[in-house]
């Protein structure tokens, strides 16, 4: 993995993710070079990180506005795309108590909409009915399909939202393979958390079921070919949902999570070998679960295990994992695979150094991971 900062895994992870999502490496160098001396300050430097990236986002937004005023829609859209990305990178590593975090997030949402509008991206902004409210989502229709098409529900992870996943490109790749995608901010992530106050809970089949209900109302979706995929902590979200929401036709765990309680306990105790995805993991886990203390959050995570769950999963499942994942042990992927005894088709794909993609959710080689998952989904659903 490209490591710009010595000993700061969350910042290096963010840079690699940004590169996968279309960032410009010289712009990254420009914003990160002044942060090198602060990289060892950990949580204390999260505000500096956020301000630096947001300033870059401001610049791209100004340039995009100038292009738009001149009638250069595509040039404007390309700049708004990077502006949205940089503001999301800024927001993701900031404290939930920093008022600027919500400011940067809402700014990113506006820039993302401008990007979609000006670039004529095949994206529909939708709201999925959910328990008297709605879940914000993006619907990307299949390309080149006459009649109802397969569709994948895409849930997020611990600290990822639907816009980041769209910029990653997996929805585009599925669309090109004739599969629609519903990218969803479910409780605990993205706009559902930040704008609606919906916090995370273990029973992910509940929001997944709401998504299936919604997709069944769309004529362009084949109701018999709706699957689910989720990234990182989604390695728990997706298998849990598929185990109990029997309308789901397949499942992809993009990075395995066998026992989130156990790994959270280790992270809370700051044990060695447990790399953190965000700078202030303690603050973020309380934010995601809506608790006042870490202990309250950990009590919820102890219910987030696939033990006793996986035998209920009967649809096809793919589990992907990097052999060098520093956040989650490879053993979690093996356990998930071995427990899927009733799946009609189970597969474990471990990415090795020989091919690339050994880090968490293939952040070191996103195309390899994306291609493999999308091909598997196509083979199963088409």
From TrEMBL:
InterPro entries in the cross-refs: AB_hydrolase_fold (IPR029058), FrsA-like (IPR010520), FrsA_esterase (IPR050261)
Annotated keywords: Hydrolase
Pfam families referenced in this protein's UniProt entry, alphabetically: FrsA-like (PF06500)
SUPFAM superfamilies assigned to the protein according to its UniProt record, in alphabetical order: alpha/beta-Hydrolases (SSF53474)
Transmembrane region(s): none
GO molecular function: hydrolase activity
Designated name of the protein: Alpha/beta hydrolase family protein DUF1100
Organism: Aquabacter spiritensis
Taxon lineage: Bacteria, Pseudomonadati, Pseudomonadota, Alphaproteobacteria, Hyphomicrobiales
């Amino acid at each position: 993995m490209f490591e710009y900062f010595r000993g700061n895994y969350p910042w290096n992870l963010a840079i690699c993710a940004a590169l996968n999502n279309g960032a410009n490496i010289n712009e990254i160098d420009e914003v990160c070079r002044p942060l090198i001396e602060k990289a060892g300050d950990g949580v204390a430097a999260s505000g500096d990180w956020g301000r630096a990236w947001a300033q870059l986002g401001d610049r791209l937004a100004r340039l995009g506005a100038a292009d738009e005023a001149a009638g250069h829609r595509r040039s404007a859209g390309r700049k708004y795309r990077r502006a949205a990305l940089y503001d999301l990178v800024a927001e993701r590593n900031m404290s939930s108590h920093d008022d600027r975090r919500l400011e940067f997030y809402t700014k990113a949402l506006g820039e993302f909409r401008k990007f979609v509008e000006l670039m004529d991206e095949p994206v529909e902004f939708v709201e999925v009915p959910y328990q008297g409210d709605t879940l914000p989502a993006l619907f990307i229709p299949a390309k080149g399909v006459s009649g109802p098409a397969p569709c994948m529900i895409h849930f997020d992870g611990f600290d990822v939202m639907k816009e980041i996943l769209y910029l990653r490109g997996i929805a585009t790749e599925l669309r090109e393979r004739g599969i629609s995608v519903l990218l969803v901010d479910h409780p605990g992530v993205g706009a559902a958390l930040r704008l609606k106050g919906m916090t995370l809970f273990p029973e992910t089949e509940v929001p997944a079921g709401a998504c299936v209900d919604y997709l069944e109302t769309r004529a362009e979706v084949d109701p018999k070919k709706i699957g689910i995929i989720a990234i990182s902590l989604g390695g728990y979200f997706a298998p849990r949902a598929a185990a109990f929401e029997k309308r789901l036709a397949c499942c992809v765990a993009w990075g395995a999570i066998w026992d989130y309680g156990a790994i959270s306990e280790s992270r809370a105790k700051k044990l060695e070998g447990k790399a953190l995805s965000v700078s202030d993991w303690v603050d973020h886990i309380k934010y995601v679960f809506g608790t006042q203390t870490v202990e309250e959050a950990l009590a919820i995570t102890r219910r987030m295990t696939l033990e006793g769950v996986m035998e209920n999963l009967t649809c096809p499942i793919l589990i992907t994992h990097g052999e060098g994942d520093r956040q989650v042990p490879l053993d979690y992927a093996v356990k998930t695979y071995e427990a899927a005894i009733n799946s009609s088709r189970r597969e474990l794909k471990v990415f090795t150094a020989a091919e690339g993609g050994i880090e968490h959710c293939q952040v070191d080689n996103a195309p390899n991971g994306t291609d493999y998952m999308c091909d598997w989904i196509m083979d199963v659903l088409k």
